[in-house]
Amino acid sequence: MKKYVDLNEIKMIWKDKRRRKPYLTAILLALLYIGDIFFLSGILGQKLGIAGTVVHEMILAGTGVAVFFVLKGKLKVIFPFHKPRWSMLAGTFVMWIGVWLCATMVNSIVIFFFPNQVLGANEGVDYLINNISVVLGMLVVALTPAICEEIAFRGALLSCFRGAKSKWTGIIIVSLFFGACHGSIWRMIPTAILGIGMGYILLETENMIYNMFFHFINNAVPVLLLGLMTSLLELFGGEDVWEMAESVETVGDFRMPLASIGLYMIYAGAAPMLIYMGRYLLHKGRPGYENGLFPPEKKKLMMVMVGSGVGGVLTGSLLLFISIGLETAAAMRYMY
Hints:
By secondary structure, the protein is mainly α. It contains 15 helices and no strands. It has helices at residues 7-11, 22-48, 50-70, 75-78, 86-113, 115-121, 123-130, 134-159, 167-180, 185-205, 208-235, 239-247, 258-268, 271-283, 299-332.
């Protein structure tokens, strides 16, 4: 049984001169997605409430499939689905942790410089998660976007760039557009980083199960954590603490502490190695990956990974030290 789709077969999607140029299809898809995300979704939300979110996501996925159906594209190649392997699911999970750490570090820096803008951009998502049950949140916030948005962006839109000389051309363009479609310049870069991870996974595995799994985990974790925290606070009578925590975001002078950025950088020091390990698990069993996780021929790559991680830890530690020093100096002013 064929486990992987031949990349040459995928590139042949655009070799037929009777079909439209791929960049024109990409522009068409982008315009249709913008119409759905920024206009139709608002109307559906007003008419149907939370159900409107699900309908708009389904329309987004349906649009991508419909365009290639009309253009007589190879749907099984553009939207590849195969039986998943446990090692590759594990690789996807490990890679998600690494990419999420990178995105979180970048997000903390953005919040430090633009705190109120970022918090304001997240109000819609926070309101949705806070006002629905965990089960409904898993459906609306995690499962539906993981399926529909991946079909639309990593499936349909990314396939328009399969003929490019470098796979990173399509991955980066689609990821930036994916970030922009979240409706805020303040959320764009962290979201685009996650999009890069999902795009890479699809092109390396040719199986949408894995990038959908990545997307699902990323959206499901905050829903589950919020549900867990709410249950614990209700169990121990901590409603006042919860209200106090929520009120922090409404303070106009809120600013991300420099120490927090340092901690996120220290955590992100593990990202290069996690991404490397995830990449290995995704390719395990393929030619070139028979010599284990740390083969001699990849010694230079390992040095780069370790060096990047150590650099992140040292930078984060320096910021943490500076923050503690500044806070100590400020406190000592009132002691004399």
